[in-house]
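Retro notes - structure team

What went well: the batch runner handled both jobs without manual restarts.
What didn't: labels got mixed up in the shared folder, which is why I'm recording both outputs here explicitly, each with its sequence directly above its tokens.

Job 1
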Amino acid sequence: MTDITDAYFSNLIGRLETLKQVLAEPMVQAASVILDAARGDKRVYVFGTGHSHMLAEEVHYRAGGLAFTVPVLVGSAMLHEGAVISSVYERTQGLVRPMLERYGMQPGDVIIIASNSGVNAAPIEAADYAHEIGAKVIAITSIAYSAAIANGRRRLAEVADIVLDNGLPPGDAVLDLEGTGLRVGPVSTAVGVTVINAIFAEVASELSKSGDAPVYLSANMPGAAEINQKLVKKYRPRNPHL
């Protein structure tokens, strides 16, 4: 392993060890809100633009994942239809509401909004829309990043009901390339999926105590087809991506 590879692993592992302590209480709060939604047959939406949308895909139809999660996947705000234009969309006011309206969000639902920078129009509008509907908002964001670049703009950390601060520096990348002024090694995705999977694991554990944990199995595992088909049948009416 080279020095920089070792540095990346060490940096990421160190951050996760720190967050395990720092986020202990807000993760419990997030799990509690999601647990209440699950017991009320509500849905948990996951939304992010740019690379943050990968958290939404991470939880969707996932082996070991919960079936009541709904990814908010809007091509124009992701990367595959045009990375450059997606950066324009996520900063443009008024685009998120019609995107979210197709999902039929209801009072008592939860939306997890991932935005590392935490100041773009899209995540802020998503939080506002959810509150109008009567849904709870959980944010995964960097407070340090948004504080550094807000310049008077509203911040996701200020409008969410529960904030999971990923503790990342402005710009996301954590390793300096000596003599270049450049930084490499972004970690927001790795941190984000770890946090969200840990929370969902806690929720699943609590639901399993009453024998009602709607967890997908890997398609190659024995009995997976029957279990997954049953879950898809139940949750497809409110998940357009199943």
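Job 2
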Amino acid sequence: MPIPSKTPNLISARPRIAVLLGDPGGIGPEMAVKLLARQRNLDAARVLLIADPVVLAAGERAAGMKLDPLRVEGFDDLRFEDGRPTLLPRDWMQGREPVLGESNAASGRASFEALELATAAVRRGQAEGIVFAPLNKHSLRLGGLVHEDELRYMQERFSVAGFVCEFNLTGSLWTSRVTSHIPLKDVASHITVEGVSDAVKIIASALHRAGVAQPRIAVTGLNPHAGDGGSIGMEEIEIIAPAIERLRAEGYDARGPFSPDTVFIGARRGDVDAVVSMYHDQGQIAMKLMGFEQGVTLHGGLPVPVATSASGSAFDIAGKGVARIEGLQQAFDLCVRMASGGPVRTLSSAEAAA
């Protein structure tokens, strides 16, 4: 849904992308620095870097690279120069160095405030997309997030009333899920016909936009062996199968329910374009095994593309300068293409690393 602009849009042939450093205590700052040190990225988009200068400097030290941003003090004087990121600085850390390798409230506040400014830039018509380096949800909650996750926070900020969902992309395979960041003990009670239907429809719409005329979508069961005819659970018979029947009657190529432990074998082979899983790890474990470093998370259902790498904050290697950025590069490229109205596709590992 469109967000009304509060200030005139800056005219640009390239989309304006807000880039965030992620959790200050993780690998996000060095990943973002490495991303923006690639000139091709600065040539592809006008980058608004929203960051605490202390955290940015820590990321530069870890990456062994120095950026040359154009500094502005606020949205009212926002401008861009070719080949340079524009830095909107904020003193969230109050001059203190980030503590690497752990979750804490200071890092969470910095991450959360950066998200708030990025969504404000979109609401003001001053950004067409958001890319963020890996966040840490525990830090975010310590820092003030009260929502299920950052997607639900942005859903509220953008006043989106419909279904939203994380998509995960590895190569040409997409996934969505019916439930996301909730305790496993609560999953079964959140599986509904409407929820399954929404998860299929939102990813079918995204794939159609990506150029897939009739997306083939596999739907998993909830229980082992997809319930084994009801002997291991009734959700497949009472909820998931009826949802698939309804979807097929509406013209969607939805298939299943498939046993969760085998569905990705055929998906990896190319039998389907997407898999809809019932809960977070049911799809995430398979996708990360298939392409962890190249994986992308795309927040579906928002008015602008919002993307990040599928990797986490990786506290164990924070500050060591060894974090790879193929996934974040994929996320940036995807966001730029979507924001500019171009075809949506993921890159090969070699393309993302170039």
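One thing worth noting from job 2: The longest helix spans residues 105-123.
We'll revisit the folder naming next retro.
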